[in-house]
Amino acid sequence: MSRTGGFTGDVAIAVEGAPTGVTGGVANVTTTGGVSTGTVTISVAATVTPGNYNIVVRAAGPGVSAVTVSATLTVEATPAIVISVGPTLITNQGASGQAVITITRTNFTGSINFTLDGAPESRS
Predict the structure, then answer these.
(1) I need a labelling partner for 116 at 20 to 30 A (CA). Which of 13, 48, 64, 77 fits?
(2) Beta bridge partners of 54
């Protein structure tokens, strides 16, 4: 934010209009010359429905009118995978068998590495 009109007072910056479960805070506000900057941190609870939300960042100081800027907050679903194996794998001694593994992805497109844990050791 740029300062004009010779304003030199403290500036309070706040985040407003966030939905329930979303909080915003501002820290590290510094002023160099006629420009004040700060870091806005937005925290989103796991209960917030994914979607787009309008929020407002407000800057105010003593003796001057508050200034606002609107922003869109996009909340995305938490990346996740769900794995299922089926049907049950049954095979005879000395043989091999197969089972189908199904991966369901939520907001995740990265590669997945498969490992087999807990299987008994092979005996010679």
Answers:
(1) 77
(2) 72
